[in-house]
Amino acid sequence: MRKILCFAAVLFLAATNVFALDVSAQSAILYDCTTGTVLYELNSNRRSLIASTTKIMTALVAAELYDMDQSVVIKPEWCGAEGSSMYLTAGETVTVKDLLYGLMLMSGNDAAQAIACLYTGDSADFVELMNAKAQQLGLNDTHFSNPSGLDADDHYSTSADLVRLSCAALQNEIFASVCGTRQVEAANRFMTNHNKLLFLIPGASGVKTGYTDSAGRCLVSAVERDGRMLVAVTLDAPDDWNDHEKLYDMGFYDMRVRNIIKEGTVGYAYAAGKGSVKLHTSRDITYCLTAQEIDRLEVTLKGDRIVYGGRKAGDTYGEITIKLDGVVICTEPVYFSEDIEEEAPQPTLWEKIKGIFTRR
Description:
The protein is of the alpha+beta class and 360 residues long. It has helices at residues 2-11, 55-65, 96-104, 109-120, 123-136, 159-169, 173-179, 197-200, 240-251, 291-294, 349-358, and strands at 27-32, 37-42, 71-73, 93-95, 183-186, 189-192, 204-212, 216-225, 228-235, 256-261, 264-271, 275-281, 285-289, 297-302, 306-307, 316-324, 327-336. It folds into 2 domains: 2-251, DD-peptidase/beta-lactamase superfamily (Beta-lactamase, 3-Layer(aba) Sandwich), CATH 3.40.710.10; 258-336, Peptidoglycan synthesis regulatory factor (PBP3), Domain 2 (Sandwich), CATH 2.60.410.10. Helix 2 (55-65) packs antiparallel against helix 3 (96-104) and helix 3 packs antiparallel against helix 4 (109-120).
């Protein structure tokens, strides 16, 4: 699933389906990570304050940069940060992984400061890495001035950019694991994730809450059901929990696991000297789809045009690739259903002539 999600995030198709949906947000987007389709959007390219959803980038850069087991001795200047906190104390020793939990579950601004200063001692250098990562991901309407999300004129993003960022971040196993954690005991603390959707919506797997007086309530979330992941973002949304529930109700409407190809014979291969031989899959091929998407599937059987002897029933022939709107959604191996015996080598012309004169 992760390779598909990453590929779809790069495509990020501009096509938008229009739905009549009442949300409280000033900016919102719902994105299908499989097809790269925007399912809903409202002012999604408007630059806005983003509060602690900033920490998605902070966590991603940290996950790529640091050893999670690295020990960190907390310095006094990292403690007592403005805003939400994991309540670090000077002199205590924690791991980078502990700081990530404090960052993503408790939205600790002190954790953000510690993570940023761990790089060179100056948080500004870490913020430069955050902005470089934003440029690498094509987030052209995003700029960071701090690692925690405190309001600043040059600290902003859009709901569209936050979807791109989240899709990229969820490819990172460390990030995905931490942001999807409901509760954990770490750094001698018991932490509960501020993201209530993890407890409210089936399949919810992250990602980050945020709030300041100026930014309002900000929320980025992800829900995966039957291998299909949608990501939603709302900015300045007084009723964000309900907004996201509405978005997912709409997005997953009519999406269910459907049988694409049944287990058994799926085609034939041409075997030299024998003709057609049967090919099969070992299980049903299914995927979470809407009824309309079934008609947009492209199924391709890949393998050698001609196969030669020495193959046994059950040996792999190739694979079936299934695309939805040009995006690969699944592949499945295909096997020979019968043996293909090795043929005795045929004599060359010279060997035939030689045989004539050596006969007795």
